[in-house]
UniProtKB/TrEMBL annotation:
EC number in record: 2.6.1.44
GO MF annotation list: transaminase activity
Top-level taxon of the source organism: Bacteria
This protein's UniProt keywords: Aminotransferase, Pyridoxal phosphate, Transferase
Cofactors named for this entry: pyridoxal 5'-phosphate
EC category: transferase
Subunit composition and interactions: Homotetramer.
Family: Belongs to the class-III pyridoxal-phosphate-dependent aminotransferase family.
CDD domains: OAT_like
Name assigned to this protein: alanine--glyoxylate transaminase
Length: 434
């Protein structure tokens, strides 16, 4: 990236739009799991456009599907017309959602998908009371910011919803972390009951939760947490929304959707990111009786347009034809096992966590659970210097996040692992030396 482009960026774009790296880079091309910057440097990409480029870059099957649609001359038509690609993709998603008698509504982003899910749930229940989870992230519109439990991503205190907050089940900090793991599910249920009794006026619309918290640093509660909560929700008729924007499409390896690790089926689930592989495509799928609760006309101008859904159909077909869920489990294990063996025992690493190709490393000051965002930033920069792009996040900015394309090969996983291990060890040694 040239200084000129950076200066132009800063002159016309708002300062609250962050740029990665001390010296921001401009990516100009990509192939497979690699991208190249304007200076000709090629990187192995372990973050995939924040888990968006799920199949990788310049994939022939996806490119050809998009080109076929472009050749018709129709990039977009109003969704007031029948769109064959949209209907075909909705049929596939409904079939694979696990939700009976499902209906699908397409949007452009995960934020819009969560907004649509909240619209359906609040109308169905005739209530604007929502249960949400601490350390969560659901989007940047007013309603989705209102159910985001992370101050760093809550850009406004204005909120059209009445929200009550549940403990996340995080294992390093907070009240539940003090308990024996076997007791945390019961404690989470007690917390939910107390919240319902003390912070709500009854008739709560829904609980919205991520099976694995993305922006929150790939934190997740124990398996079965959603099912334990669901038993209480069912006593009150409260709906369950599973935010699968980051956990969907087999990324966790063990399951196609994150909710399946909990032995429960949600009433609504939201999807985005990977299904478009870079094209703007997202949506919500839910039981018909809930999705049909919207009492007035509502449609998305661009959601489910012919070009995006042509890409989405090709992405989903490729994902299923190549069993990328199994690849995520296999290749993710190489990374997780390798990281735990090589750096998991370091005093500055509190935890290597995640599932499949959704992995995080949390950095702390040695001998404590005090977050160390400065060390995280150094490791982040060291990875880039070594030719690897990763992400970062967590409530305290101290988690290195990896979400590579699901097409990542075993050799590429080992290549990236070597860069990660070298970056962590070199920065940790510098911390000790300092």
């Amino acid at each position: 990236m040239t200084d000129d482009l950076l200066a132009r960026h800063r002159a016309v774009l708002p300062s609250w739009m962050p740029l990665y790296y001390a010296e921001p880079i401009e990516l100009v091309s990509g192939s497979g799991r690699r991208v190249t910057d304007a200076q000709g440097r090629t990187y192995l990409d372990f973050f995939g456009g924040v888990l968006t480029n799920m199949i990788g870059y310049d994939i022939p099957e996806i490119r050809e599907a998009v080109q076929r649609q472009l050749a018709t001359g129709l990039v977009h038509t109003s969704t007031l017309y029948l769109i064959r690609q949209q209907v075909e993709l909705a049929e596939k998603i409904a079939r694979h959602s696990g939700i009976p008698d499902a209906r699908v509504f397409f949007t452009n982003s995960g934020t819009e998908a969560n907004e649509a899910a909240l619209l359906a749930a609040t109308n169905h229940r005739r209530s604007h009371q929502i249960l949400a989870v601490r350390n969560s992230y659901h989007g940047r519109t007013y309603a989705t910011m209102g159910v985001t439990g992370n101050r760093g991503w809550s850009a406004s205190a204005l909120n059209p919803l009445q929200v009550a907050w549940l403990h996340s089940g995080e294992r390093l900090r907070g009240l539940l972390s003090r308990l024996d793991p076997a007791d945390r599910l019961d404690a989470a249920v007690e917390d939910l009951r107390e919240v319902l009794a003390t912070q709500t006026a009854g008739d709560v619309a829904c609980l919205i939760a991520e099976p694995i918290q993305g922006v929150g640093g790939f934190v997740h509660g124990p398996d079965g947490l959603l099912a334990a909560w669901r038993k209480v929700l069912d006593e009150h008729g409260i709906l369950l929304i599973s935010d699968e924007v980051q956990t969907g499409w087999g990324r966790t390896g063990a399951h196609f959707w994150g909710y399946q690790a909990h032995g429960v089926t949600p009433d609504l689930l939201t999807f985005a990111k990977g299904i478009g592989n870079g094209f703007a495509l997202a949506g919500v799928v839910g039981r018909a009786e809930i999705m049909e609760s919207v009492p007035a006309i509502s449609f998305s101008t661009f959601g489910g347009n012919p070009l995006a859904t042509a890409a989405g159909n090709a992405v989903l077909d490729y994902l299923l034809d190549h069993d990328l869920q199994a690849n995520a489990a296999r290749v993710g294990a190489i990374l997780a096992d390798g990281l735990r063996a090589a750096v998991g025992g370091l005093d500055c690493v509190a935890e290597v966590r995640g599932r499949g190709l959704m992995l995080g490393i949390e950095f702390v000051h040695p001998g404590t659970v005090e977050p160390d965002p400065a060390l995280t930033a150094r490791v982040f920069e060291a990875c880039r210097a070594g030719g690897l792009l990763v992400g970062k996040g967590g409530l305290y900015g101290n988690v290195l996040r990896m979400g590579p394309p699901l097409t990542l090969t075993e050799d590429e996983a080992r290549e990236g692992l070597a860069i990660l291990v070298d970056a962590v060890r070199s920065c940790a040694d510098g911390e000790v030396a300092a």
